[in-house]
Amino acid sequence: MKREDYISWDEYFMGIAKLSGMRSKDPSTQVGACIVSEDNKILSVGYNGFPTGCGDDEFPWEREGNMLDTKYAYVTHSELNAILNYRGGSLAGARLYVSLFPCNECAKAIIQAGIRTIIYECDKYANTGSIIASRKMLNAAGVEYYRYQSKGRRIELEL
Questions:
Q1: CB 37 within 8 A of CB 29
Q2: pLDDT, tens digit, 9 for 90 and up, residues 87-97
Q3: pLDDT at residue 159 above 90?
Q4: How far is the CA of 104 from the CAs of 4, 8, 16, 115, 145, in angstroms?
């Protein structure tokens, strides 16, 4: 008889997304993403951080101030990083697991990449212009999205 307490696909892939987010050096927000094929194969992962070659100590991590003195002008979001990290063929029909609902800029890349479903954990910026625009584009493009339903299971890794 097989064991019955194994994790679901959603738990597995959201766990990978959250683990990827732990690579982020952002002191305030760590976001991870995992792109998965229709047959449940991991295609790519990403986390929020500066582009390759842009040193983590050379660019600002600040959240407030002049745009050029904040992280917002420089950070690549986890969703875009996962899309750009993919070295295979098409992402058409893929699912995206992400710890924070995608902004409007990431929504554009998600739509253009052909990703069809987004599973997100947190939507703390739901009432901001960026997320309202994101939802409007995702809806227009027929991209499905739903909130990850945690089962409250605690999973620990000793590394």
A1: no
A2: 988 999 999 99
A3: no
A4: 39, 29, 23, 15, 14
For the chain, what's the residue count? 159
Q: Where are the alpha helices (DSSP H) in the chain?
A: 9-21, 78-85, 104-113, 129-141
Query: Is 38 annotated in the active site?
Result: no
Q: What is the mean pLDDT of the chain?
A: 96
In whole angstroms, what is the distance from residue 91 CA to residue 69 CA? 34
User: Model pTM?
Assistant: 0.94
CB 33 within 8 A of CB 82: yes
Let me know: does 63 contact 70? Beta carbons within 8 Å.
yes
Catalytic residue among 4, 11, 62, 79: 79
Gap between the terminal Cα atoms of the chain: 31
Over the stretch 31-41, which tens digit does the pLDDT of each residue have? 999 999 999 99
Convert the pLDDT of each residue in 70-110 to its tens digit. 999 999 999 999 999 999 889 999 999 999 999 999 999 99
